[in-house]
Input
Amino acid sequence: MAGANLTINEHRKQIVMGLTAIPRRVGKLEYSAVRLPLTLLENHVVARYWDDEAALRLGFERFLGSLDGSPDGSSPTITSPGGARH
Output
């Protein structure tokens, strides 16, 4: 009987771990859905037509940098991070 209770508890732990991973994956998917068009805009319009030190360009890059950081301090893996110029 004790073995059956142990198996049930292990099964419950696996379910709980799976449920906490779902919101994280949804968040990464939402991040990717927002970040991709903004990256294309940055690479094909902002970098081409706006001066390096233009206030709008710096503001846009700062906005992209704020998207790259998450509330827990980690950054999602991306190919081209945005950020303010120093």
User: Anything to note?
Assistant: The two ends are 65 Å apart (CA to CA).
